[in-house]
Design goal:
This protein is mostly helical. The protein is about 90% helix and about 0% strand. The protein is elongated and about 65 Å long.
Length: about 90
């Protein structure tokens, strides 16, 4: 029983990690694609032109999705702490 619980918690932790990192990575991906397209059409090859908007998009995504991410992390931590006494038995 303890092995199943540990595997379930590990699987849920990995899924939560992917879901929590999806908003900033997705925003950076979309903005990076748009900036690459802009640089390719205008032939401007300035490196900061692609890095700064991606960073701003990631921060904005974290600000917007922050409450949801915090709620998911606190839900996971609560369920983990409540299940902790059952692991020892």
């Amino acid at each position: 029983m303890a092995q199943e619980m540990i595997l379930t918690v590990g699987r849920e932790a990995l899924l939560l990690m992917v879901l929590a990192s999806l908003p900033p990575i997705g925003a950076s991906l979309l903005v990076g694609f748009a900036m690459s397209l802009f640089q390719a059409t205008t032939q401007i090859q300035e490196s900061t032109l692609s890095v700064v908007p991606k960073l701003c998009a990631a921060v904005a995504a974290l600000v917007i999705a922050g409450p949801w991410i915090a709620a998911q992390l606190s839900r996971f931590a609560t369920s983990l702490l409540l299940a902790l006494p059952g692991v020892g038995s």
